[in-house]
Model the fold of this input.
Amino acid sequence: MPGSRPLLRWLDARPAWLTIAASFLVLLLLWQLLVTLTDYPPFILPGPGDVAAAFVRLVADGRLLRHSLVTLSEVIPGLLLGALVAMPLGYLLTKSPLAERLLSPYLIASQAIPVIAIAPLLTIWVQSWYWSRVLVAALTVFFPILVNSIAGLRSVPREFYDLMHSLRATRGQTFRTVSYTHLDVYKRQPTRSGRPAAPPRPNRRSPSSTGAKCPRAASSSCSCNTSTRRG
Done:
């Protein structure tokens, strides 16, 4: 609408914190207006005042802090367990075509089963409320970390590995210098864990003719340079 353009330009010129605060206040007003007009019971649609009062009450009696610590004690081990399994498995699937052919169909098929559907079975199998919740958290983060690990490793240009081989670098040096720097699981766009997406396929394009440089070869901290000097 033509009349709204000056208002939009004025909002664009304001600081970000001001527009965020204004939008939050508008949201609260619309929320309270909806509660007032519909007259729903508080247990169905509580108002902003009811939510704020309940929040203060939970903070005052310590229940919010206590339950938050319990949740963190289950989520953090689940995240570490899922990452410790997914990242080495992603490295194996990237480096071994046989492992990819054997395991990829089962990994893809497992995403057709919602984690919440097998949560009761985990409780029965594990016979521990705590560890069953840890396993649910681990299964939730496992596939996104696996997909991003594979995508990160397969994004490494082939010339980097050729360069490390020409520098007589060991497998450990190649992994630390090239592979590990591309395991940017937390920098990439997260993948929805409930979507049955296949792991990324390897890049079949021919290597570029331009010369590739080692990510750390320019600095003296690159350990692979020492083997070249010895040679």
